[in-house]
Amino acid sequence: MATLPILILMGGMVAIWAFRKRSLRFRWGLSIAVAFIALIVSVLITQGAPIRASLSIWRPLDIFGTQIRILADSTNSKLILATIASLIAILLSEVVRIGQREIQLHPMKLAYTGLAIMALLSANLLSVAMSWALMDLVRLIQGLTVAEEEREVSTLLAGVVVDWIGIFAIIGTSIANGLAGGVDDLEVPLASAWAVELLILAVILRLGIFSLGYRISNKGETEEAFPILIGLLSPVVGLPILARQLTFGLSDGLSIGLGIGGAIGMLVAGMRWLLADEMPERRRFLIQSVAFLGIMAASLRPEHANDVIVDAVLILLMMGTLGSIWKIYAPWQRIIPFLAGLMILIPVWSPGSMIVESMAEGFEAGEHIWIPILGMIGLAMIIVGIVRDAFDELRPWYVDDLARSLYTAALMLPIVGGFGLSIGADSGMGLWSIVTSLITAGLVGIGVLSLRRVKGRWLRRIQMGFARLNEAPFLEIAGVIAQGILRVLRAIGGILEGEGAMLWIFVILLLIQLGSGLGS
Questions:
Q1: How many helices (H) and strands (E) would you count in the chain?
Q2: What is the C-alpha to C-alpha distance for residues 154 and 140, in angstroms, rounded to an integer?
Q3: pLDDT reported for residue 116
Q4: What pLDDT is stored for residue 520 in this prediction?
Q5: pTM
Q6: CA–CA separation, 161 vs 456, rounded Å?
Q7: Which of 486, 490, 341, 336 is nearest to 411 (CA)?
Q8: Which 3 state secondary structure label does DSSP give 99?
Q9: DSSP code string of 242-289
Q10: Kindly report the CA angle at 200 between 184 and 305, in degrees rounded to 5?
Q11: Which residue positions in the chain have pLDDT lower than 50?
């Protein structure tokens, strides 16, 4: 049962490929229909008790000592629904966003979303590593399909190198955990401090701090759906894994370290989110600022770390989707960013309620009070960053009434989904929560006015200052590694006489290495 949404999306991928000679409208409609079916099935199977399943595809056992295991419970059920809702919103908006340009790669969109759900359902480290590797494979194939220049291929491979470092960190987590007597199961705490630290490293690498080549050969003003999904779902799959482990508790030193690291990451990413101009870059910084905010808030309430980070991922998915598809085509649409801001600000039954309550408890406890203070500043920066878009200029409509209605539904789906998935959440609206929300709202007002006043040369200077906080040294190293990988792949491709054979042989070797490393 737990695998049904994955199987539906994968079946939709095969169906769309089989009908590849049919009209674009038919394939577009089929992809939306498949996504809606997956959403309905997910709603049905995520009700009630947790669902566990094992996939007995790894044999012989002397090579693979464990199986892929998945778990559908309260931790990831919301995230599965939010992931499919994001896919639907992105697909619905394409008619308006892309216009007359060709809408491509429908099978890849469904496949990538299905693999992301598999990663969210992962119940052991093997499942995590395998699902991440498959997601990166789909990204690699898609990138090689659309890349037009050698520089783009090199950039793509450098990005894959970064992601693979995160996968090998998961392998290191398994090894360290096994040496300490632990088991390959995410429902129990890791047995080694080294394992926890390697897991944190893997999750942070997944956040796109060293993001490379997500936007390849994306000609035109707006993004295709696949780069949007990569930018959103690649970071999402790591945070729930970290959330499970934080719930088991951390040492005081590691908890303080997460608070400090989360605060620094949140402030730097938040400022870059405020100042960046292009959405692909802005989305990356939004993801990082929300993720680090969630990690910092979780350090304040370790016993509720799971709920706090799940709420942060909901905000990340809903606001990231909205920011990626949203343009002003009608005056009423200016209210959409304000509604998105309320998803964070309202202290009850909203995706941000657990984060606000964490800040409130930090104030009430009076210990490390600088963490909730910085948290309010981070909350305000995230909201200001999306509210500022409400003041953009109107764009002309070039589509019919049906397309406009679909676009309206696409805009409202993240808002409705964000609040709908949070109704009934275990969050209170105490005095400190109300005070925290009101102070944050005041900071938002000050931030919006300040950002509108700081224009021209001064704004450009601030942007240039933060632009210096880039990944250039790391990217140069990754680029050199990528060039080496590219030469090796070309040599193998020449032997196998075909790019397709080269890719599949390469991934088979990778999967065998991952499986044997985690199973030992």
A1: 20, 2
A2: 11
A3: 93
A4: 41
A5: 0.82
A6: 38
A7: 336
A8: coil
A9: HHHHHHT---HHHHHHHHHHHHHHHHHHHHHHHH--SHHHHHHHHHHH
A10: 90
A11: 58-64, 100, 212-221, 495-500, 502, 512-513, 515-520
